[in-house]
Write a structure and sequence with these properties.
By secondary structure, the protein is α/β, with parallel strands linked by helices. Helix content is 45%, strand content 18%. It is built from eleven helices and twelve strands. The longest helix has 18 residues. GO terms for molecular function: lyase activity; magnesium ion binding. Its cofactor is Mg(2+).
Length: 285
């Protein structure tokens, strides 16, 4: 998957618009986009959205954080709708993932859902404590599928007046981004890049998305339908990357006992082969 489009959980109109996009997944939101007094009512709306899903899109639900006391109520309302996954905000390490996993086991059993089939995606950098817990995923539930980083809540946690200047993230936020990427790779799960907040600057979105893919992110969260096509295109390899990767794979297939091959005057070894194979796998998404 390349694009995760957030949809406010109380807006059927925005849900209908989101279904018409090429977003690989929708995140039906019960957290930040919903006013406190509307959160309980939004649960039923999200349940109706799950029933009216587009068959080509995965459906995730972002529940309220574990420390709000609302998580179980959110899950009780939406799990009968069989979401593909749950997005856990303010996640601080393996303990939070494992706690959510236990909840999901119970709700899957109650709803007749295949055990273990509901994925977990964490928003893993929203507090200073969460950033420090990014290395604490060695004993997490196998449900963990992806780790997303975010800069907006982290700014509030740090007391920062802004998180970027001229479209470029400041140091603490780049640190959180890179640590999330590395931690996701170490955990063997998908790293998901954060949203672009400037809705109208599509050139900046394209540049940011390409940089994220080149660094190793496999998907990006978006907050507006017109961002979807830009992100989907950016998270596919270019023709040049594909051609070069095919050369590498071919060279090693013709020299299966070699640890190093020479292509166009360059010495290419097995790490290059693994990178090439990953690029060709992206081509088939």
């Amino acid at each position: 998957m390349r694009s995760f489009l957030f949809v406010p959980g109380d807006s059927q109109r925005k849900f209908e618009s989101a279904k018409k996009t090429a977003a690989d997944a929708l995140i039906l939101d019960l957290e930040d986009s919903i006013a406190p007094e509307e959160k309980v009512g939004a649960r039923q709306t999200v349940r109706e959205m799950l029933d009216a899903r587009h068959p080509s899109q995965k459906m995730y639900v972002r529940v309220n954080a574990l420390d709000t006391g609302m998580t179980l109520g959110d899950l009780a309302a939406v799990m009968p709708g069989r979401p593909d996954g749950i997005v856990l905000p303010k996640c601080a390490g393996a303990a939070d993932v494992n706690r959510l996993s236990l909840y999901l086991e119970a709700f899957e059993a109650a709803a007749g859902i295949e055990p273990g089939s509901t994925r977990i995606v964490t928003v893993a950098t929203e507090t200073a404590r969460a950033v420090l817990k990014l290395l604490d995923f060695e004993n997490m539930s196998p449900r963990l599928w992806g780790m997303m980083w975010g800069a907006e809540d982290l700014a509030a946690s740090l007391g920062a007046s802004r998180n970027r200047t001229g479209g470029r993230f400041h140091g603490p936020f780049l640190f959180a981004r890179d640590l999330c990427l590395i931690s996701a790779a170490a955990a063997g799960v998908v790293a998901i890049d954060t949203i672009a907040t400037d809705i109208n600057d599509l050139d900046a979105l394209r540049e940011e998305s390409i940089a994220a893919r080149q660094d190793g992110f496999l998907a990006k969260a978006v907050i507006h339908p017109k961002h979807v096509d830009v992100v989907n295109a950016a998270f596919m390899p270019t023709d040049e990357e594909i051609a070069w990767s095919e050369k590498i794979v071919k060279a090693f297939s013709e020299n299966p006992t070699s640890g190093v091959v020479k292509i166009d005057g360059k010495m290419i070894d097995k790490p290059h082969l693994r990178a090439a194979e990953k690029i060709l796998a992206l081509q088939g998404r």
